[in-house]
Structures are given as structure tokens and as C-alpha cells.
Design brief:
Elements (H helix, E strand, L loop, with lengths): L7 E5 L3 H13 L3 E5 L2 H10 L3 E7 L7 H10 L5 E6 L4 H9 L4 E4 L4 H54 L8 H32 L5 E5 L1 H18 L3 E6 L6 E4 H18 L5 E10 H5 L18 E9 L33 H11 L3 E6 L5 E8 L7 E2 L1
Parallel strand pairs: 1-2, 1-3, 3-4, 4-5, 7-9
Antiparallel strand pairs: 6-8, 6-13, 9-10, 10-12, 11-12
Helix pairs in contact: 2-3, 5-6, 6-10, 7-8, 8-10
Length: about 400
């Protein structure tokens, strides 16, 4: 008697003799096999019973052919392994089937033992895919749960430390205030890491909500620069801001763009030694100048971007050790950390630049780095002027 763990196999073939021979063989091998004589019947059976491990699918059938059935299964996200069967031996057709999600392809006539081996291989690959997907989902769920559970107590910690720092619970001298402020800054760094991680996940899942409206770029830059003025001064770093008069507005989400600038300035502070300089600049440039730029291959160019006539260039330059050229093409990847070192360097999760890239691209812009090891780094943001940007929610 078949136990509950026996794999179910669906044979889809309008040639009754072949289908029956396969069924008898598979039943003898310990599988639970079923028959469908056409594509429509097969799709109906697969919709009602989603626990088929493998489908043996003939390509040439009346009504819905095998390739159409395969595409529909693929589009529906079915995890059933599909082995295509054909009496033509067409190599191009085999490639097309594999591109549409088929696990394997076998030409008729075939040896039953060969079919059994292919089925075993398809089952193993299917199990591996399902296990990998489950592990990935468990990891995603754990990260999101951990992130949410960490952020709330951190916010409470920041608030409590700030109450003490402000002297509301008793006098605090200057040195104590510095230590308390350092604790607040460190907690805020962790909160930023969590926010970056959560929003990266939302970007990848297509669930990010953006309120994109025309914004004064000077106002946004000045706001963020003011926030970093104190820590820069504390670390003995000169922070300057150079804003070209009359620069056009940009269409962005205010909070997201502010976080982008904060991530870039935070990195600049992290890797700039005492006595160094950080310069933030903003310029309006024409389309001809943009088309002459040497934009790196890893920077994604939005559709119709080269045809624009007005762009805003925001740059954050530091005098740190720079980034080796062989790392530039991956610094915007998740969990990638710089190998440049300074005595002041603090660790990070490698999420800030990944968030920057996703956010800027959502504004139909580009971001890249111009660096030379030992000579500092220059992170460049290029966005279309507001008049050429599409505003509205996303």
C-alpha cells in the first residue's frame, strides 16, 4: 500500500499507449501516477491538486500544446518539476522549454530506465529548490522580525539617554555630556542600519511607498549638512557646503533623499581622518555635459535619461583613503564593506550605499563613485531637473 509520502506524478500525453506504459512502469516503481490526455485537463488537475512532484508533459497535443501548458505553470509560480517529452528531437524547442522553466527534456522513443533516472533527478532538484526557498523565507522573516523588535527598544534608549544628557535628572558636566551624545549617535547608527535594511527589502519586494514631489535641493542639503556639522567638528573634520545659486528643484521623496545624503555623509565621516575635509556641492548642468561624462558601467542609466537637457549634480567628496578601483563595481551591493582603513573607522552593515542606489534610481537618477585609492572619494548623484521629472506617488 502506498504511504502518504509517495510522490505523485502526472503524465500528460494524447498517445494512450505511451501514457499507459509509463503509468504501469511508474506504479511498479512506487510512484502514484495519474493520466491527462490533453493540456486543458492537465491544468485543471494541477489546479485542484497542487501536490504533484513531477509532470511528464508531451509537447505536441491537440488544443493546448505542451509549451503553452509549461508557460502557464511557470507564470502561476508552480513548483512542480516538468519534464518535456517530444518525438521531434528539436534542439531549439528543447532550449525554449528550458527557458520557460522545464526541468528536463527527453526525446521519444525513450528507455524507461532513462526516464526513471530523469524523474529522480527532477525530484531532487525540486526538493532542493523548495528547501532553498523555505530557508530564504525563514531568513527574511527572521531579519524583519529582529529589525522591528530591535528598533522599538533602541528608540526608547535614545530618548532616555537624551533626557539625562539634557540635565533633566541632574547636572551633567561637559565630559559626561560628550559620552552621552556618543551613545546617542551610536544608537542612531543602528536605527539607520535597521531602516536601510527594512527599506531595501521593501524595494526588492516592490512594496516601497514613495511620496515624490518637487523639492528645493538646497534646503534638503543644508538640513542634512547641519545635522553632521557637530560630529564633523568634534572629529576635527572640516565640512563645507557649496550650493550653486538658482539651482532647479528635483522631484524626490524628501525623507528618502535626506537619508541618502545622510548615508553618504555618514560614510564620509567614518572614513575621513582627523584634519581631513568633506565637501558637499550642488550644481545644475546641461545635457551636453552629462552626455560627455564617463559614467561607470555599474551605474544604471534610466530610460530616456541621455535625452534630458537639465540635470542636478550633487556630490559628496572626502579626503579619506579612497576606495580601490577593483571594488568600485560592487560597493553599492548589499553587505559590501569598504576595505579602506582609518583609525577612526567604525564598522557598518554594508547597507547604506545599497539603499542609496535603490532610492536614487526610484527618482529616475543615477549614483556612482569616483575614487582613487589614497586620494579620497567622490560620490556623485545625478538627477533630472524637476521640470523634466515625473512627480507623484509611487
Amino acid at each position: 500500500m502506498l504511504d502518504q509520502h509517495v510522490d505523485k506524478i502526472l503524465i500528460v500525453d494524447d498517445e494512450e499507449e505511451i501514457a499507459q506504459a509509463l503509468k504501469l512502469f511508474l506504479d511498479d516503481e512506487g510512484f502514484a501516477s495519474s493520466l491527462a490526455s490533453d493540456g486543458a485537463t492537465a491544468l485543471d488537475m494541477l489546479e485542484k491538486e497542487k501536490d504533484y512532484s513531477v509532470v511528464l508533459l508531451d509537447i505536441s497535443m491537440p488544443g493546448l500544446d505542451g509549451v503553452t501548458v509549461l508557460r502557464r505553470l511557470h507564470d502561476a509560480g508552480s513548483d512542480t518539476a516538468v519534464i518535456m517529452m517530444s518525438g521531434y528531437g528539436n534542439e531549439e524547442l528543447a532550449v525554449e522549454c528550458m527557458r520557460n522553466g522545464a526541468e528536463d527534456y527527453i526525446s521519444k522513443p525513450f528507455a524507461l530506465e532513462d526516464m526513471r533516472q530523469r524523474i529522480e533527478r527532477a525530484r531532487a532538484h525540486r526538493r532542493a529548490r523548495i528547501e532553498k526557498r523555505q530557508l530564504q523565507q525563514e531568513k527574511e522573516d527572521f531579519i524583519l522580525m529582529l529589525s522591528h523588535d530591535m528598533k522599538n527598544p533602541l528608540t526608547a534608549v535614545i530618548g532616555s539617554i537624551d533626557i539625562i544628557r539634557e540635565g533633566r535628572l541632574g547636572a551633567v558636566n561637559e565630559e559626561q555630556g560628550e559620552y552621552l551624545q556618543s551613545a546617542i549617535d551610536s544608537c542612531n547608527e543602528v536605527v539607520i542600519m535597521i531602516d536601510n535594511l527594512l527599506d531595501i527589502r521593501k524595494f526588492e519586494a516592490g512594496k516601497i511607498q514613495m511620496a515624490i514631489h518637487p523639492c528645493n535641493v538646497h534646503e534638503l542639503i543644508s538640513k542634512v549638512a547641519d545635522q553632521f556639522a557637530r560630529p564633523a567638528s568634534h572629529d576635527g573634520i572640516e565640512l563645507t557646503v557649496d550650493l550653486q545659486p538658482g539651482t532647479s528643484e528635483i522631484a524626490v521623496d524628501r525623507n528618502a533623499f535626506t537619508r541618502v545624503l545622510g548615508n553618504l555623509l555618514g560614510n564620509a565621516l567614518k572614513f575621513t581622518p582627523e584634519g581631513g575635509r568633506i565637501a558637499v556641492s550642488c550644481r545644475s548642468i546641461h545635457g551636453d555635459t552629462v552626455r560627455a561624462l564617463k559614467i561607470p558601467a555599474y551605474a544604471t542609466i534610466p530610460p530616456d535619461f541621455p535625452e534630458g537637457n537639465c540635470f542636478i549634480r550633487v556630490a559628496v567628496r572626502d579626503t579619506g583613503n579612497g576606495i580601490p578601483t577593483d571594488e568600485l563595481d560592487r560597493i553599492f551591493d548589499r553587505y559590501t564593506q569598504f576595505t579602506r582603513r582609518t583609525e577612526r573607522e567604525r564598522g557598518g552593515a554594508g547597507l547604506g550605499l545599497a539603499y542609496c542606489k535603490l532610492a536614487i534610481e526610484s527618482f529616475h537618477g543615477m549614483i556612482w563613485a569616483e575614487c582613487e585609492a589614497g586620494h579620497g572619494s567622490n560620490f556623485v548623484i545625478l538627477l533630472p531637473c524637476c521640470s523634466e521629472s515625473s512627480s507623484g506617488g509611487k
